[in-house]
Write a structure and sequence with these properties.
With 352 residues, the chain is of the alpha+beta class. It is built from eight helices and 20 strands.
């Protein structure tokens, strides 16, 4: 494997994060990846350090608050706690009575339901103005629970119904009738690449996760959030954007836009490698105050993100997203899945 000396790394880090030349290179790389198995046989060999992991967060229930961990396993379906295999990303989802998934976009008070996973038990605690309320449910087993089809965007996914007791509790604390909790017990994704995802040149079928909106992984840098906050009166925390991997120490804001391949860790042979899928296009979810479960009426941070009108890592992708509110990058596992990563690990981006 090839390496770069420290002076070359410093120069490359600054050049790598953006620009027309980078866009042209990324377009050629994307075409190779999409049309052949070139990178399966010839994975990236030259890397530049672009930061370190500052936070790892697993969201066991889609659209509820996350759980911070220090170590995690990089499964193809998303992060899994290194200490407790039951704690994995978006393995639960809340649906309405018709089986359609629900999020804070529709029910902002879901931000106040805090999950904890201890061994094979999911604990939910609603933190409300009139006091707290909690409930626990054991992770369902296939032989004990009904498996039903539920809807995640355009996909129909089989999942296990967690029962009437927790269903009634969810409806009580949110004030929304007919809510149910489902668990994904399969080790394989049931999701398909939809038409919107197919438009992105590097999106691959293996990138789809369990109940995630787009892919198994979303990464974001602290430097990008600092830059965004500098342009607004209101200061937004990282948890408003819900990355599973937060990175610090990048050479400049928005550097993650140009990362087509990312390696976590120093072992060039065994460290997990991630491949970009698409930018994270931000929606109403970021306008929900994560501490109060209420809508931020001024439309931030979407309004400011949209006003930036900045190009992203690939000219083709820039045309697709136009002036959408882009913040962070969706990734899928490319190589060395089921590796352990931890806070403080170095992040390397591929030079192409």
């Amino acid at each position: 494997m090839s390496t770069l000396d420290s002076s070359a790394l410093k120069v490359s880090a600054l050049c790598f994060s953006g620009g027309l030349a980078t866009g042209i290179i990324m377009s050629k790389l994307a075409n190779k990846l999409k049309n052949s198995d070139f990178y399966e046989k010839n994975p990236p060999e030259k890397w530049v350090k672009v930061g370190t992991i500052s936070d790892l967060v697993i969201y066991p229930v889609k659209s509820l608050p996350g759980i911070t961990v220090t170590q995690a396993v990089t499964t193809i379906l998303g992060l899994q706690d290194a200490a407790n295999p039951y704690l994995r990303d978006r393995s639960f989802v809340i649906t309405n009575a018709n089986g359609g998934f629900q999020t804070q976009r529709v029910i902002p008070s879901m931000a106040l339901i805090h999950p904890t996973v201890i061994e094979d038990v999911l604990h939910l605690k609603f933190v409300g103005e009139d006091g707290d309320d909690d409930i626990s449910v054991k992770f369902p087993k296939d032989v004990q629970y009904n498996k039903k089809l539920i809807r995640i965007w355009t996909d129909k996914v089989y999942a296990l119904d967690c029962g009437d007791q927790i269903s009634d509790w969810l409806s009580k604390v949110t004030g929304v009738e007919g809510l149910r909790l489902f668990y994904h017990d399969s080790e394989n994704s049931q999701r398909k690449v939809n038409l919107g995802q197919k438009a992105f040149p590097m999106f691959a079928p293996r990138d789809t996760g369990i109940f995630q909106d787009e892919t198994s992984y979303m990464m974001m840098t602290e430097e990008s959030l600092t830059e965004l906050n500098s342009k607004m009166t209101r200061q937004f925390p990282m948890k408003s954007f819900r990355p599973c991997i937060t990175i610090t120490g990048t050479p400049e804001p928005w550097a993650e836009d140009a990362w087509t391949f990312v390696r976590i860790g120093n072992d060039v042979e065994k460290s997990p490698i991630f491949k970009t899928s698409q930018p994270c296009l931000r929606c109403k979810m970021t306008t929900i105050d994560p501490d109060t479960g209420t809508i931020i009426e001024d439309g931030e941070p979407i309004k400011t993100l949209t006003s930036l009108k900045r190009p992203v890592w690939n000219p083709t992708v820039t045309k697709i997203v136009k002036n959408a509110a882009v913040m962070g990058i969706h990734f899928g596992i490319f190589k060395n899945e089921n590796s352990i990563i931890q806070v403080g690990d170095p992040i390397y981006a591929a030079l192409v």
